[in-house]
Amino acid sequence: PEEVRLEPARVPPDSTHRPHATPAARVDSRDKNLAAETLPGASATAEATPQRRSDAPHRNVGSMLPNTRDFPPLTPFAASVVEGKRRLPLSDTENLMVGAFGGTLECAVQMPLITLKICQQSKKPFPTTIGGWFRGVTAAAAPLGPITAVQVAVNGAIERVVTGGDRDPTDPERVGVAMAAGAVSSVLYSPVDLVVIQQQKLGLDSPGATVSAIVKEYGASGMMRGFWSCVVREAIYTAGYLGLAPIAKDYLTGNVEYFKSNDLAASIVGSSIGGTVAAVLTHPVDTSKTCAQSDIAGVKYPNARTALGMVYKDGGIGALYGGGLARTARLCGAFFIINNIREAAIDWKTARAEA
């Protein structure tokens, strides 16, 4: 084919060349014939240039697009952040810190509710001073911090295994993972509960002395008295605050118009739903566990299952739910505090990653 030569566009000598002066000047020289067809005032040289019409739009559009080398490749996380589908998960260390802080804080703030429950269950008179309502707060909060830390951290670790770390868990997965985390934490929580109950009963000065007395009298296996009832209680409890409460909140903010713009109200209602369900389901188990661990020798209650039936036979459903109202209120508050601390930590980490 005959070679076609393109002449450069000429600028009058008495004018100042400005690249943005005319539309034709902004078009690449390779596409001057397209400019001649679509833009007025284009160079006559471009009109004479032969070019296939089918290729011209493609080359013109391509010349206007920025070079892809100027942009980093999109990652799955970056895309999900832009689309608002997924936030950055906490690491194991961050989950431990969130759980420890949340567990300690909720126990310290809600110590009056714990005192109220104990007084109702043991038929003791209520304290008459503010200090009396907070008596024993250090002893109560000290074990709850590490235990909650274990629950939150194990929940995060199991969740990563289930989801592969590249997607959000489904609602059933959230509940199941939380139940597993609660069950694992019972390895720590059950002996702690036993020591607290036996220390109060025996009147010993320290947890260490209580552990020594239990092991000496009943062997190492005595430390696991009431373990399986604790597994049931903690599995349901943890599913409540790490599974059901967040699910209820997400449903409210996604489907109820009022809660779409009232995140705090949705969090309160979601925590109340999760706390109430967890309290109703676990309080009879908690009562039977307390009875079995108090009677460590098994004189009256051979095990927690037997204790459950005997307490119901002696006092009816009311005996199984002694102090239940105070414990329900406490669980609702605990779910609200721990979940909001966890959500704030996730939001902070995600915002830093986006920045």
What does this structure look like?
With 355 residues, this protein is mainly α. It contains 15 helices and no strands. It is globular. It starts with 31 loop residues before the first helix and ends with a helix.
How much beta, percentage-wise? under 5%
State the share of residues found in helices, binned by percent.
55-70%
Largest sheet: none
pLDDT under 50 segments (min length 5)?
15-30, 32-85
What global shape is seen?
globular
Which whole number gives the mean pLDDT?
Answer: 79
By helix and strand content, what is the structural category? mainly alpha
Question: Based on DSSP secondary structure assignment, what is the total number of beta strands?
Answer: 0
SSE series: HHHHHHHHHHHHHHH
Give the end-to-end Cα distance, rounded to a whole number of Å.
56 Å
Number of helices: 15
Radius of gyration: 34 Å
Secondary structure: elements and pairs:
Layout: H1 32-38, H2 44-47, H3 56-64, H4 76-83, H5 92-109, H6 111-122, H7 130-133, H8 137-163, H9 171-202, H10 207-218, H11 227-255, H12 257-260, H13 263-294, H14 304-320, H15 324-354
In short:
With 355 residues, this protein is mainly alpha-helical.
What brief labels describe this structure?
355 residues, mainly alpha, 69% helix, globular
